[in-house]
From TrEMBL:
Protein name: UDP-2,3-diacylglucosamine diphosphatase LpxI
InterPro entries reported in the protein's UniProt record: LpxI, LpxI_C, LpxI_C_sf, LpxI_N
Source organism of this protein record: Shinella zoogloeoides
Residue ranges occupied by any LpxI C-terminal domain in the UniProt entry: 146-280
Xref: PANTHER family: BLL4848 PROTEIN, LPXI FAMILY PROTEIN
Single GO MF descriptor: hydrolase activity
Gene3D superfamilies reported in the protein's UniProt record: 3.40.140.80, 3.40.50.20
Lineage: Bacteria, Pseudomonadati, Pseudomonadota, Alphaproteobacteria, Hyphomicrobiales
EC number of this enzyme: 3.6.1.54
Length: 291
């Protein structure tokens, strides 16, 4: 069978959640000469994967995932895209060889944050003998760089907001809750929760419209990796939709962690940011623990 050929024993598989990132990763992998296999998550991925070898499975059905990957010679796996609904413990179906870790899986699903759940997903996949790799290893060009991406840079007021929001985002990340925060006038006004970045920015826009946030001061969105986060999963990301929601919320710009965040649709994002008068910049936050 074709699946047993040596060149397929380390085939790349992409577990595709929602958003545009899985498509970027798949197209970039193909451009590099790979033939990626797509495992599309049911009720999460809305992409048409007809141009790729693909299968659809529920996020908790590790038995099907493991069997499918072995059948198609998968040796490397990348997790890509958002997942809106974490599986219930009763949705978990794992191969017999991994049943010994099911109690810790259930415990993580019940009590763990997103990063803890992602680490458990990685553990389950690697228990099947496959290696999980990061998106940045497949598409390094998506990583944000230090400094302004466009022609606009943060002014002194925005720098103060960046410092305040970065400190809040790191504190939030230590609790494994979210990756983003918004500061306006040097004051943190929103923290990212289960609603995600888009929901947080909608909340900021509503607070602004209700007069709860200054109309005079703009503010900044900051997105950072959580302290101790496994860089192979769920790197902070921004795209055109993030920029547009930041604009609707009245913000001056966006700051992301250089080298640890993904910038999607970069050329279009920078062009629109410049046209709309917003900055997008990469920062290196102070990750030293404060006493």
């Amino acid at each position: 069978m074709a699946e047993s050929r040596p060149e397929l024993r380390d085939r790349l598989a992409i577990i595709a959640g929602g958003g545009m990132l899985p498509r970027y990763v798949a197209d970039a992998a193909r451009a590099r000469g790979e033939n990626p296999y797509i495992l599309s998550l049911r009720d999460e991925s809305g992409e048409d994967w007809s141009g790729y070898d693909h299968e659809t499975a529920s996020i908790g059905n590790y038995s099907v995932i493991a069997t499918t990957f072995r059948k198609h010679g998968v040796g490397r796996v990348v997790l890509s895209g958002w997942v809106r609904r974490r599986p219930e413990w009763r949705d978990i179906h794992a191969p017999l060889r991994t049943l010994r870790i099911i109690p810790s899986v259930v415990r993580t699903l019940l009590t763990g944050g997103d990063d803890a759940v992602l680490k458990m997903v990685i553990r389950l996949i690697e228990a099947e003998g496959m290696r999980v790799v990061g998106v940045h290893e497949i598409v390094p060009d998506l990583l944000g760089s230090k400094g302004p991406l466009g022609r606009l840079a943060p002014d002194d007021a925005a720098e103060a907001d960046i410092a305040a929001a970065a400190a809040a985002a790191l504190a939030l990340g230590r609790l494994d809750v979210g990756q983003g925060a918004v500061a306006v006038g040097g004051r943190v006004v929103a923290l990212e929760g289960a609603e995600g970045t888009d929901g947080m920015l909608e909340r900021v826009a509503a607070l602004r419209a209700a007069g709860r946030i200054s109309q005079r001061r703009k503010g900044v969105l900051v997105k950072l990796c959580k302290p101790g986060q496994d860089l192979r999963a769920d790197l902070p990301s921004i795209g055109l939709e993030t920029l547009r929601r930041a604009k609707a919320a009245g913000l001056a710009g966006i700051a992301v962690e250089a080298g640890r965040s993904l910038v999607l649709e970069r050329a279009a994002l920078v062009s629109e940011a410049d046209a709309e008068g917003l900055f997008v910049t990469g920062i290196l936050p102070d990750r030293t623990e404060k006493a």
